[in-house]
């Protein structure tokens, strides 16, 4: 640790917990508690129950969760492939062209996601690219919104990559494709898995653009959470939120294990 004084470390730890608990841990704890509450008229919830989770199991929540998972997996894969390809291609570009490419990929993040949703709605509402009212437009919106994070992660990893490996392989007669698949991609695996996890998590929680684009037969879980809280079913919305958080954390835990194995390799 950069701070060597024991007293200073204690102060830093105290400040961390004072900021972390009320800003991050407490809201999540409130949501988790509310998902088991039958009522909440005082300082603490009352009438603990599992009824909200039983209702979810019998309702449309499993289908919405599957929709969110499929959307996040498809959008994350598309974002990872596109972002990795663009980051590798940007290595050979000049400074001005690289800045232009950075701007293009960061533009969907710089504007509100609802603007991205509206842009896709207008762009794909008429032939020959008619995607309005299909699951593909939702997946496309998620991919557009998260590709920037994959691109930036791989770009940062490439900047830290020692060029001596690729140069040695090329000097021994390896073709560019061989250098890419046998040298660069294996060295980038930890960063690629981290980017995949980030893209997946961001897609699982995306709401603004999704609200503008989702068809009636493709309703992701965040939309259900919004609909439940909008009609006043706060405890049901809390149970849906816990389901979303738990699923996302489980997938990220699996990605983290893959990342550890890739780093060890």
Description:
The structure is a single chain. With 265 residues, the chain is mainly α. The chain has a single domain, classed as MetI-like (MetI-like fold, Orthogonal Bundle). Helix content is 77%, strand content 0%. α3 crosses α6 (135-160), α5 (113-123) crosses α6 and α10 runs antiparallel to α11 (234-264). The longest helix has 31 residues, at 234-264. The protein is globular, with a radius of gyration of 22 Å. The two termini are 27 Å apart.
Structural class label: mainly alpha
Model regions low in confidence, pLDDT < 50 over at least 5 residues: none
CATH architecture classification name: Orthogonal Bundle
How would a textbook summarize the main sheet?
none
CATH superfamily: MetI-like
State the end-to-end distance: 27 Å
Whole-angstrom Rg: 22 Å
Quick synopsis:
The chain has 265 residues and is an all-alpha fold.
Looking at this protein, list some descriptive labels:
265 residues; mainly alpha; MetI-like fold; 77% helix; 0% strand
Please render the helix and strand layout as text.
Blueprint: H1 6-34, H2 51-58, H3 61-90, H4 95-110, H5 113-123, H6 135-160, H7 163-171, H8 176-204, H9 208-213, H10 221-230, H11 234-264
Helix pairs in contact: 1-11, 2-11, 3-6, 3-8, 4-6, 5-6, 6-8, 7-8, 8-11, 10-11
């Amino acid at each position: 640790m950069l701070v060597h004084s024991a007293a200073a470390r204690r102060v830093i730890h105290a400040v961390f917990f004072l900021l972390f608990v009320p800003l991050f841990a407490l809201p999540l704890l409130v949501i988790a508690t509310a998902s088991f509450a039958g009522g909440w008229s005082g300082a603490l919830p009352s009438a603990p129950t599992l009824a909200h989770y039983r209702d979810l199991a019998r309702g449309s929540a499993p289908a919405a969760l599957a929709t969110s998972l499929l959307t996040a997996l498809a959008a994350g894969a598309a974002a990872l492939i596109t972002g990795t390809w663009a980051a590798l291609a940007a290595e050979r570009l000049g400074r001005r062209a690289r800045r232009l490419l950075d701007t293009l990929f960061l533009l969907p993040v710089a504007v509100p996601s609802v603007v991205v949703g509206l842009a896709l709605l207008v762009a794909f509402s008429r032939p020959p690219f008619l995607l309005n009212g299909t699951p593909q437009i939702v997946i496309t919106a998620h991919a557009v919104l998260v590709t920037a994070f994959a691109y930036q992660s791989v770009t940062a990893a490439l900047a830290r990559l020692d060029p001596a490996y690729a140069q040695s392989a090329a000097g021994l007669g390896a073709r560019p494709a061989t250098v890419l698949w046998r040298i660069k991609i294996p060295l980038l695996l930890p960063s690629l898995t981290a980017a995949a996890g980030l893209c997946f998590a961001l897609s699982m929680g995306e709401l603004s653009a999704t609200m503008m684009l989702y068809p009636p037969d493709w309703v992701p879980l965040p939309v259900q959470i919004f609909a439940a809280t909008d009609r006043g079913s706060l405890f049901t919305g809390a149970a849906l939120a816990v389901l979303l958080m738990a699923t996302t954390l489980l997938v990220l835990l699996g990605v983290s294990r893959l990342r550890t194995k890739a780093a060890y390799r």
